[in-house]
Task: structure prediction
Amino acid sequence: MVTIALCGTDAAAQAFKNAGSAGSQFLKIGVGARASAMGGAYASIAEDPAALAWNPAAIGPMHDISVEADYTKWAADLGLNFVGIIVPITDRVNIGFHSIWLTSGDIEITTIDKPEGTGEVYDAGSIAVGMTGSVRLTPQLSFAMTMKYIEERIYDVSGSTVAADAGMWYNTEYRSLVLGFTVLNLGFDHGFAGKSLDVRYAPLSLDEPPVKAGVQTSLNQLPLTFRAAGSFDLFSMFFEPLKSQRLTTAINFIQYSDTQEQVALGAEYAWNDLLFLRGGYIFNDDELGWNTGVGLHLNLTDINITIDYAARDLGRFGLGHCVGLSFVYH
Result:
């Protein structure tokens, strides 16, 4: 018991020590209205392009062209956008493309002399663009990898890098139990450069030109993330499966490189594959907590359309909202 307590204290101290050590924090904001409504307990769910951002291997079981677009209204008037597409190449190989970009809108510049604003504005933004390849080794087991380009910008200063995601998706075929494992944002540190970091020093003598120099920024790490996930239909797991109803229950264990570990629990009730009610909770997060949402699924002749909405508790930052629209072409 003493050893366990000491290890727990050590881990907590290390997590606190690493706080603020990683940049590109927009990569930790969950995308997809359905995934958001389930509290981000999504690394073992394989039914829409949002899986590209949670576990790339979860696109392995998909057999149709799928497209999804989502918008999230985040804290401090930030907006997070997601677009993803999945294209089957063969019976075993799928490819996917996705982009995530965060926008701030115009921010007015203030100074000590003009605290009410100078009339000038600037903005900030971040973007990640990824390409995924998945291989379905068996009907139950898929592996995948994503290569992505990441860039962050504020005013005229920017920095970029590349990173990789890797994942595994496994349908145990035991009473609907599905497992997922993923490592995200495995990449290179990056710094920033731009005109605002350029400086000039006056020469030591009049016959010498000005000295050009630049402020060197410290390197930012990426928020390395590991997820271990499981999900199942509660009715099939413990009772008799129902034809017209499902209650998907999911749990994710999450470890970030810069914060303490978290647990996400999520659930989705489906009625006739038409109406969906969702909820989720994130444990051990200073701000994020409960999540909830709804979805409507329409089966047409050659296309399925899904409309989703999620509300997210952002703690002291109020309420976040996410809307999503997805299409599946048969």
About this structure: The chain is about 10% helix and 50% strand. The CA atoms of residues 140 and 171 lie 5 Å apart. The first strand starts at residue 65 and ends at 73. Residues 2-190+219-329 form a domain with the Porin fold (CATH 2.40.160.60).
